Every structure is written in structure tokens, then in C-alpha cells.
Amino acid sequence: MTAIVGAVALVAVACGGGSNNPSGGANPAVGAGGGSNAAQPPTAGMKPQTTIGQGEGQLNLIAWSGYVDDKWKKPFEQQTGCQVNAKYAGSSDQMVSLMANGGGGQYDLVSASGDADLRLLYAGDVRPVNVNLVPDWKNFFPAFQSPPFNTINGVHYGISLQWGPNILMYNKKDFPTPPTSWDTIYSSQFKGQVTVPNNPIQIADAALYLSKTRPDLGITDPYELTQTQFQASIDLLKQQRPLIKKYWADASDEISMFKNGDAIVGAAWPYQESQLTGVKFPVASVIPKEGATGWADSWLLATKAPHPNCAYQWLKYISTPNVQALQAVTYGETPDNKLACPIMDRLSPGACAQYHANAPLPYFQSISLWKTPLADCGNGKNDCVPYSQWVSAWTTEVVG
After folding, report:
1. Rounded to an integer, what distance in angstroms lies between the CA atom of residue 11 and that of residue 119?
2. What does the pLDDT read at residue 169?
């Protein structure tokens, strides 16, 4: 991990040049795919295929829970003859580990988030892709066509998928008045009833909260923290530790905790909420007044993908408005394909507005999307805390 982070630290421009404008136009770095000064990943010279050949009959995916649902997996298998095998990961760190050595000749694609993308790119574990083989790429909101988390110096290493927030989920029976602030998960009132992800990137959630409640710290980006800002975030999480019933590793863990009454409030993904409400369990969620962190996911192609033709068939299929809408409604997230909105409403009336798929800009700007913390914050100094130290502090000071 340390070696990977060291490589990523050379390319702060690639991570820091992102736009918060899915409608495009506001930030020229979006079109530049991270800027012309970004270092080239090791696989930059690998030429992507120019056509999609005969499918190999199989496709091996590393994915977030819920991303390979039978509702869209089975039609894909029937259409292409590519049988899909999914390995579900509970964290970005696990995805990076599974993708080591270019997927090891085992895995074809990974549904990576922004805190993993650059680690995978600069470890040489993913390779360039040909966006011309994905017709619906042209229908994506501009910010997701060539974002700095999957496109470097104009070379695409993945196809954007969906994005969304990390929400505050709560049991409505225990909260007749909905919470409005993240202070709920730091309150001794709910000792032993709180759950948050077992993930070092959770430090950014603490930093985001402190950016609003401790303005004296001067936090402007929850992923770009000086040592003082970082330590304040760690201290807050250490104070939270006695309140935690359990740090959840997989979405299913949190779902079970809420069902069993072990947890009544916590940080979650929309997926957990949709699964619980789907069985009539009384949960709801809110994006608190301090805002929220979130993710923007991409399917990245493994350097040693054994089934590249089936992989491209998947990239084509998962990018279409029908499938984007189905995944968005099922999971509870926002599609990148701007044509998905009316289909979402046909599947679930009001879903387009609910997930801000029709006018996403203000919503998008309220979400601090995951990215890899780097020593170089883009200010000419190496005075920010890199991800390797986030991992160390999380495992030894917070969870440990």
C-alpha cells in the first residue's frame, strides 16, 4: 500500500483537478482529464482494442454490493452469452488488494470509487479503454465523460457509472423528529447504537463535520488535511469509538444491525436504505446540514483482463439509459447518463427528482466526492497527510 501511495503522491494534479459540475463548463480541468501536467500511469502506452470481438463466455467482476443485481445481470447474460461472476468488496482498500498485479489474470473489471482509482492507475493495475466502443458515453453529463479520477492526459482508463452520497440513516421509530446534523453519530446520547463504515476514508467524514463546526481549523477540503487538521479528525473519531456498536465492513452488516436493533443510526449508502425500506423496515435518511461525502464510481478494465470482449460488452450495456435508470432506482444513486431520467420515473414515479438526475448540479456541489488523500495538496508543499497515514491512524488509533 505504501508504495502505491508514494506513486500517487507524484500526481496531485490528477486528483485535485476535479470539477463539481456534472453539467460541464465550469472547470476546464474536466475536459483535460486531470490536466496536462499529470504524470503518465505505467499502462498509458497500452493501446486499447478498436473493435469488440467474440465474447469469451465469461466475465469476472469486482463490485460493490448491489452493483451486479440479477435484474440487469441476467438480461446481459442472455444477450451476450457472457456469464457474470461477481466478487463483492466491502471497501476501496479491498478492491485495490484484489486488483493487484493487473487483476492477476482473474478479474476483468472493478467498480472503483474515487479514493481507489488513482491507486489502481498508478500501480499499473488497470489499462486504457476505448470510449468509442461505448456508444452511450457521449450521453453522459460532461463532468463524467473525462473526469480526473479515471482520465489522465486525455487517456481513459475507465467508464463512469453512477454517483451518490454517504447518508445519515436512522430508525424512524427512534427518531420521530429526523436528525439534521452529523453530530448525532458523535453524541453520547446514542452510545452503543451507532454504526459507521470500517474504512479509513471515514476520516474525511469527521473532517467534513469539523470544517463546519470548528472553522478555526481552516479545513477547506476533507481529503486535503494538514497534520493539525488530520489529528483533530482522529481525535473526534477516538471520542466516537465508545459510541460505536460495530464498524460495518459490508453493506449486509449494517442492514442486519438495523434489523436486529443493534444500531439505530449511522453512516450508510443509499443501498442499505433501499434494501431496508424494501422489506418495510422503518428507516429513513438525510444529508445533514454540514453536507456529505460521497462517491463517483467507474468500471475500470484490469490490465490482465482474461475476458476483454465480454468486459466491453458489459461497459456498453451498463452505460445505456435503461440499465443506468434501473441501477439508479434499485440502488438509490444518480446515473451518469443524462437520458436515464424519464426512464427512472417510469420505473419509480418521482425517482428522477429524488436522486437529482434531472438537475444534479446543486446536489452534486453539496457532496465531497471521495478522492485519494495526497501529501501534495496542490499548494506547492507536501504538508498534507497522505493516505498511507490515514490507513495507519484508522487501524491503530480509531478502530484498534
Report:
1. 11
2. 98
Q: Is 210 within 8 Å of 260 (Cβ atoms)?
A: no
* Distance between CA atoms of residues 262 and 264, nearest Å: 7
Q: 197 near 247, Cβ under 8 Å?
A: yes
Q: Is residue 164 within 8 Å of 335, Cβ to Cβ? A: no
CA distances from 89 to 41, 63, 84, 224, 355 (A): 24, 6, 16, 26, 24
Q: What is the dihedral of CA 324, 354, 219, 95, to 10 degrees?
A: -30
Helix 270-278 / helix 251-260 crossing angle, nearest 10 deg = 50
The residue to which cell 459510541 is assigned: 243
H or E segment to which residue 295 belongs: strand 292-301
Q: Band of the pLDDT at 32, cuts 50, 70, 90?
A: very low
With 0-12 / 13-18 / 19 or more C-beta atoms within 10 angstroms meaning exposed / middle / buried, residue 274 is middle
CB atoms within 10 A of CB 105: 12
pLDDT at 377: 82
pLDDT in tens, 224-270: 999 999 999 999 999 999 999 999 999 999 999 999 999 999 999 99
**16 pLDDT more than 80:** no
- DSSP result, 186-232: G-GGGTT-EEEES-TTHHHHHHHHHHHH-GGG--S-TTS-BHHHHHH
Q: DSSP string spanning 135-174?
A: GGGGGB-GGGTS-TTTEETTEE-EEEEEEEE-EEEEETTT
Q: What is the mean pLDDT of residues 179-198?
A: 98
Q: What pLDDT does 376 receive?
A: 85
Which of 3-12, 218-227, 291-300, 369-378 is the least confident region? 3-12
Report the candidate in 288, 64, 298 with the shortest Cα–Cα distance to residue 179: 288
DSSP 250-270: SHHHHHHHHHHTS-SEEEE-H
Task: Tell me the pTM.
Answer: 0.83
All structural domains of the chain, each given as residue ranges with its CATH number in brackets, are 2-164+296-357 (3.40.190.10), 166-293+375-398 (3.40.190.10)
Per the CB < 8 A criterion, the answer to whether 64 and 88 are in contact is yes
